[in-house]
Amino acid sequence: MSWRMEFQYGVLMFCFLCGSALSLARDVDHIVLRDGDGESLNFLVVGDWGRKGEYNQSRVAYQMGRIGEELGVEFVISTGDNFYEDGLTGANDPSFEESFSDIYTAKSLQKPWYAVLGNHDYRGDALAQLSPVLTSKDNRWHCRRSFTLTKQFRIPSSPETMLADSSVQLLFVDTTPFVENYWKIPNEHKYDWRGVAPRSAYIRRQLQQELEMGLRTSNATWKIVIGHHTIRSVGVHGDTVELIHMLLPILEKYDVDLYVNGHDHCLEHIRSVTSKLQFLTSGGGSKAWRGIGESADMNGLEMFYNGQGFMSIQIGPTNLHATFYDIDGNVIHNLDLDKKELHHEDVA
Q1: 282 vs 206, higher pLDDT
Q2: Where does this protein hold Fe cation 1 (predicted)?
Q3: 66, 87, 148, 222 — which has fewest CB within 10 A?
Q4: Residues annotated in the binding site, as ranges?
């Protein structure tokens, strides 16, 4: 199976396992990659960026390249709104090169880019971003409506300490179809719902057959869900009501650690007041400075940065470290989580 196949009814899973050889296991909806030393998983997160280098997109890209080199990142995640203002006109739209290939040129960024679609992407030819034509032009580009990435950590044991196997699972969700306002007719904008309509069936398939099944059967130590739209945000877009009602209960039910999104053009960290879930917004890839919403719910707010920037996430067997960077590459906020309960002292 290759990226040329359409996965409308399955979850696309990438499994990064320890080992020195790179192999590709083929299945109906399952790609397995074996590579790396198994010690950690390092990646960058950027969203709301595609403006042909304008609105400081190029400056953010430069700092991403620098930080990516320092951390030795394995890939980059895009939280959507990949091409402004109205997505791509087709698979041969020069905006793909002008906003992506020609901007993110640093050596450290020549790694896979895993992208979800944002609402601005749906305002153009949404299928173009899913097309293998783009991957043939730039083999970094991997965009799907929903898919999963998994990395397994093999932790050596010793006579003194026994460590359970650990893993991280990242589940990507297509959130734009959830927002009811985009479906209204007449609408200010036209949305490309090919492969999505009818809305209710598509949402049910995403939640029940893909996301919930993936979480229910997961034994991952770390569970991270990525989507474009906010669940919680104090930015101008604010909370997304549909996701609070439909997506949030699933994330809390299966003890998801992070929900990572874009949509609001800022950097943001909100701590859930009802569960261990952390909400991280990385939507500062280009145009920003829109401020805090007038009726924002400030409960759980840990950090809000009204400007451009990006995130890095470093995950080890028992610890997770997320860092927010501004346009000059300065650290503006850190989040540290640990799961030391994985360490079991041998008392025999």
Answers
A1: 282
A2: 48, 81, 84, 265
A3: 66
A4: 48, 81, 84, 119, 228, 263, 265
Q: Tokens 């960026």 correspond to what residue?
A: 49
Q: Which residue, among 124, 147, 125, 102, has the nearest Cα to 5 in the 3D structure?
A: 147
- Please tell me the distance from the alpha carbon of residue 281 to that of residue 259, in angstroms, as a whole number: 8
| pTM over the 0.90 mark | no
Give the model's pLDDT for residue 150. 85
Q: How far apart are alpha carbons 278 and 333 in whole angstroms?
A: 14
39: pLDDT strictly greater than 90: no
Of 237, 245, 321, 344, the catalytic one is 237
pLDDT of residue 23: 28
Binding residues for Fe cation: 48, 81, 84, 119, 228, 263, 265
Calculate the CA 141 to chain-centre distance. Answer: 14
46 near 79, Cβ under 8 Å? yes
pLDDT(81) > 80 = yes
Annotated catalytic, 120? Answer: no
Q: What is the pLDDT of residue 344?
A: 34
Which pLDDT score, from 0 to 100, does residue 21 have?
Answer: 25
* Pairing between β-strand 258-261 and β-strand 12-17 as defined by DSSP bridges: unpaired
C-alpha–C-alpha distance, residues 339 and 320, integer Å: 9
The domains found in the chain, sorted by start residue, are 12-343 (3.60.21.10)
